[in-house]
Fold this protein.
Amino acid sequence: MNKEELTALLEAVADKRLSVEDAVTKLKITPYEDLGFAKIDTHRGIRQGAEEVIYGAGKTREQIEGIVMHMLEGGSESVLITRLSEESAEYLSKKTELFYDKLSKIAMAGERTAEADTGNIVIATGGTSDIPVAEEAALTAEYYGSRVTRLYDVGVSGMHRLTDNAEILAKAKVVIAVAGMEGALASVVGGMVDCPVIAVPTSVGYGANFKGLSALLSMLNSCASGVSVVNIDNGFGAGYLANMINKI
């Protein structure tokens, strides 16, 4: 149950379309449902405004199916799944309506959400190799209703590519800067805009990149004000946070 459904429930009681007893029965449903292998947080939509998201990596396709089908049968119109393998996506598509993006490994089960049309999140990547993480962020933000503008392959090794898009950056409500190597893109973008910048270090880079650790430390040490950092390759976290900022 999300906030809108809770509001509708209370309005139904106020209008006497639903008895107090029936409303209490609906609200008595436990705040989580135990499937044995998973405990679904059924009240997360009420607390946070967004229902639980499934992290697909490490779960069997049968476990993912069980969680998805239980959520859909419980009233969820759609379910967001991150890091879903192609094999699990193919299996799940035979069980329910499924949108799947191979590049970002993002999936959406059930009905597709309305077209994203709120605000403006700009997502910039240092290189083409960073796009899978950027798309995870972009599709997550779009899933929750935010409009996304993509600026891909505008890294600091060719600054003119970034500065040529200064006007687009200036119109953003929040910017997500996705970069590997030394992660310099976040600091440069932070010095160009007047909105929050969410930096996403990626594991893209050669040996001394330490699978994204060098980019993470560079971004954490950014001298530009207004730059915050999420974990390595955490496009979902960046997209979710950007959407929250965008909706304020």
